């Protein structure tokens, strides 16, 4: 396991046990989606065919995760992108994204991941849950990001720390765009306003990996509207445990309305710029 032995408090052993299971499940699902992705899956095929294949792989990956996690912890709940939610009897719910970055997966771009988090409370309520352990695994690169609450975050066993950028003009900002035309129009408007003020923009295509890139210093900040609980839970913990502040606008809890992740000083500077831009709404 590539977690930490430095978690604090009486729950540290349980968090590490949850992390071990999350990592094992993420690797198993990652092997499935990587090894069984058809070689000829791509945009050259008919429009419906590759989409159907991706949907099938999403469902197969989520079923594998469901079977593995709940066979070992049958009283836990599960919330996944593909539906079929299982209510929790233990107080712990697994929040899973079987393929985060499905468009990258469709095109063969090696930036997609399996994301798994163990949370208490209601994972659909941004202010009503706490993430105890999380794993984001990229099956193409083999990189595995892990974190436990209070125990730090790691990339393949190496401790992570965010970049403490003091100058907004040196900020490399990651972002993403939704599928709906109106949302994309508003997101483009926000990015157009920010672009002259930062070093540059990156669009990776996986919210979970974007949050982990903040944690390991490959980007300095991440901004996106529209993330779902399974996009955010594990990567958000990895970023926070690496020293990032992860929130919505005006420091509301991070959630579907907005996610902003950066080191605290940069986070405050970006918040100041974002408030008048209203990135938490689709209204242009």
Please, could you describe this protein's structure?
With 284 residues, the protein is an alpha+beta fold. 36% of the residues lie in helices and 21% in strands. The chain has 2 domains: 148 residues, Fructose-1,6-Bisphosphatase, Chain A, domain 1 (2-Layer Sandwich); 110 residues, D-Maltodextrin-Binding Protein, domain 2 (3-Layer(aba) Sandwich). It contains 7 helices and 12 strands. The chain has a 7-stranded mixed sheet with strand order 1-2-3-4-5-6-7, with helices on both faces. Strands 9-8-10-12-11 form a 5-stranded mixed sheet, sandwiched between helices. Strand 5 and strand 6 form a beta hairpin. Helix 1 runs antiparallel to helix 2 and helix 5 runs parallel beside helix 6. It is globular, with a radius of gyration of 18 Å. The N terminus is likely disordered.
Write the layout of secondary structure elements.
Elements: H1 12-35, H2 48-72, E1 77-80, E2 92-100, H3 102-107, E3 113-121, E4 129-137, E5 144-148, E6 152-155, E7 158-159, E8 172-175, H4 181-194, E9 200-202, H5 207-216, E10 221-224, H6 229-241, E11 245-247, E12 259-262, H7 264-274
Parallel strand pairs: 1-2, 8-9, 8-10
Antiparallel strand pairs: 2-3, 3-4, 4-5, 5-6, 6-7, 10-12, 11-12
Helix pairs in contact: 1-2, 5-6
